[in-house]
Amino acid sequence: MEYVYAVGLGDLALDGTAPVTGVDGGTVRTVGGGRGLTALVSAVPADRFAEEHLAPQLEDLERLEAIARAHHAVVDAAFATATVLPMRLATVYRDQARVAAMLDEQHPYFEELLRTLDGHVELGLKVYAEPRAAAPAEEPEPAGASPGRAYLQRRRAERRRAQDTYGAARDTAEQAAGVASALASARAVHRPQQGEWSAGRGENVANEAYLVPRQDVERFRTELAALASDLPGVTIEVTGPWAPYSFAGGVTS
């Protein structure tokens, strides 16, 4: 069976600065269609990747992570040298002939997407709110207040600070979307991250991706970073550049 990582126009090659292998250490090679598209693939065993055997692997978080790491490593190595369309995780075909047929069948759709993505990268934009980071280093005790009253006053101050911080974060997220959209060709809005994905940064109030021309990447970073430079408790994080997973038109969903 053939595991498909990405599709591109013409000849595809991997960035040679570091050796890259596919899922389970497979050798990555190319399969061409008859109309100019090329897929990056590696052989995988049917007893693990046929449909009836694949689902249990994707439910095993450790195994899923191993597959995802190998998948993304191949896509990233290809993206370093060419515009590629990342394929959905665990996209598998019976043999090379079926991969080539898929390339020909999907040629108009894939070619249009690749033309759109050419010269662009994906940048992630996240906005976080952390009310504790907005607190003064030392808050004075209310003068003349009993311990109980002082506690209630501190709690009220904490609630006000939380409201102010979240309000500032939401306003910043709205501003950031405007600035980012002006520099980008497309925008994708994702669900805010929770739990360990946002640990240490506060609450993730905005999680978006932008398709940005390569020449505007540094400008994007600079202009977005400036929006939260003087807002205690509000953080803007720009990640990437990545292969355009969020803009693959459903191929990677």
UniProtKB/TrEMBL annotation:
Superkingdom, taxonomy of origin: Bacteria
Keywords: Gas vesicle
Residues making up the signal peptide according to the UniProt record: none
GO biological process: gas vesicle organization
Biased composition regions of type Low complexity, renumbered to the chain: 134-151
InterPro entries: GvpL/GvpF
Main localization of the protein described in the UniProt heading: other
Subcellular location(s) of the protein: Gas vesicle
Region (Disordered): 134-170
GO CC, one annotated term: gas vesicle
Family: Belongs to the gas vesicle GvpF/GvpL family.
PANTHER family tied to this protein: PROTEIN GVPL 2 (PTHR36852:SF1)
Name of protein: GvpL/GvpF family gas vesicle protein
Organism field: Streptomyces bauhiniae
